[in-house]
Amino acid sequence: MKFKKTLFAGIAAIVGASTLLGSNIASAQKDWPTKPIALVVPFAAGGPTDTIARLIAVPMGQALGQTVVVENTAGAGGTIASTKVARAAPDGYTIYIHHMGMATAQALYDKLPYDPMNSFEYIGQVADVPMVLLGKKDLPANNFKELEAYIKANGSKVTMANAGPGAVSQLCGLLFQSRMGVRLTNIPYKGTGPALTDLLGGQVDLLCDQTTQTIPYIKDGRVKAFGTTTMKRLPAIPNVPTLNEQGLKGFEVKVWHGVYAPKGTPQPILDKINAALKKALSSPDVVKRLQDANIDIAPMAKVSAKGLKDHLESEINVWGPVIRKANIPD
Predict the structure, then answer these.
(1) For 15-65, what is each residue's pLDDT tens digit?
(2) What distance separates the 2 farthest-apart alpha carbons in the chain?
(3) What angle, rounded to 10 degrees, do the helices at 267-281 and 284-292 form?
(4) Rounded to whole angstroms, what are the CA distances from 78 to 48, 164, 170?
(5) Count of alpha carbons within 13 angstroms of residue 229, beta-carbon side
(6) Separation in Å, CA 118 to CA 42, 51, 122, 173, 312
(7) How far apart are CA 224 and CA 133, in angstroms?
(8) Which residues, including other chains, have CB under 8 Å from residue 75's CB and lie 6 or more apart?
(9) Other Cβ atoms within 10 Å of 305 Cβ, number
(10) What is the distance of C-alpha 13 from the center of its chain?
(11) Dist. CA 327–CA 263, nearest whole Å
């Protein structure tokens, strides 16, 4: 009898402790955040992803009532930062912004210490940076039809620059070659800066690059623009047709960005972060500054867990076969 009383008392104590713990967790979630939040960026300061992160960090912090601190963790194509976030405490104080590299990592690296689809909670898409297929100024072709004929006539003699293995410029170029059914001579650089410099100097023939840094050169005629990688023409360069309308049906490459959290982050906290992200992307100042940089804000329907998850899965299916077929690095 004494044993039963002791057992029941022990059970009661455990139940009581569990109830108290549950109450404390619920209270913590309700009061969240009570300290600054780290927004991890997988690249060095100054790049497009870092720029977007810093634009949304301030209004997100204002919406949450705490400072959102941008934390740059560069290296290994974003996999160092991704691993760091995947292993972080799921308490909402570490969140993550990454671009389409989240979708290409599995095909680029043999063994990842995280699973892009299952090691994170999804918060929402953020913004897309369009790209343009560019040619050097003195390339004989003046439009896409002429470029197609020039490539078919010259094959591997045509050179295509990129920013190195796994870079978006490389992936865009490889997808272009795959859709065209050709194999060009791919020349890797240590970044799009030097690749663009050599294109401007006429040392390489082609480059697929982001609009954030190429539109001024297109407008002043220092490079030829053969097509945008979007479904619709870009307002900043309305006279440049899309590759889709010129025959490469469905050709779309955007440097898209999404916000994530460690797996297991409580839903009430995720909901608060999502609401803050939506508020930031609706801020007139953020909208203007992103538009000025030729960056497209994601539709609000995609600034959601489902929108980001569905898009990531779709992009993995697009880029996996392209990367494996190309046998990157190249």
Answers:
(1) 454 444 444 556 567 899 999 999 999 887 877 788 899 999 999 999 999
(2) 97
(3) 70
(4) 14, 14, 16
(5) 25
(6) 18, 27, 10, 29, 11
(7) 8
(8) 81
(9) 17
(10) 49
(11) 31
For residues 188 and 163, is the Cβ–Cβ distance under 8 A? yes
Q: What is the pLDDT of residues 295-322, one digit of tens each?
A: 889 999 999 999 999 999 999 998 888 8
- Which residue intervals of the chain are DSSP H helices? 2-31, 48-64, 79-86, 101-108, 144-154, 168-180, 192-200, 211-219, 267-281, 284-292, 305-326
d(CA 209, CA 255): 10
DSSP code for 302: G
Element containing residue 186 per DSSP (H, E)? strand 185-188
Question: How far is the C-alpha of 302 from the C-alpha of 324, rounded, in Å?
Answer: 28
- What residue type is assigned to position 252 of the chain? E
- The secondary structure of residue 139, as a DSSP letter, is -
Cα 319 to the center of its chain, rounded Å: 13
| Residue whose pair of structure tokens reads 């309308």 in the numeric block | 245
The answer to whether 123 touches 305, Cβ cutoff 8 Å, is yes
Could you tell me which residues are beta bridge partners of residue 94? Answer: 38
Catalogue all structural domains in the chain, each as residue range(s) with its CATH number.
Answer: 36-129+254-326 (3.40.190.150), 130-228 (3.40.190.10)
pTM of the model: 0.77
Q: Which tokens sit at 133?
A: 């297929």
- What's the CA gap between 191 and 163, in Å, rounded? 4
Distance CA 25, CA 32 (A): 10
Q: List Cα–Cα distances, 81 to 47, 107, 254, 301, 321, in angstroms.
A: 15, 18, 21, 27, 25
User: Cis peptide leading into 130, omega within 30 of 0?
Assistant: no
Q: CB under 8 Å, gap of 24 or more: what pairs does 198-203 form?
A: 198/161, 199/134, 199/135, 199/136, 199/161, 199/223, 200/136, 200/137, 202/136, 202/137, 202/138
What is residue 78's three-state secondary structure?
Answer: helix
* Contact assessment for residue 56 and residue 280, using Cβ atoms and an 8 Å cutoff: yes
Rounded CA-CA distance 115/135 in Å is 37
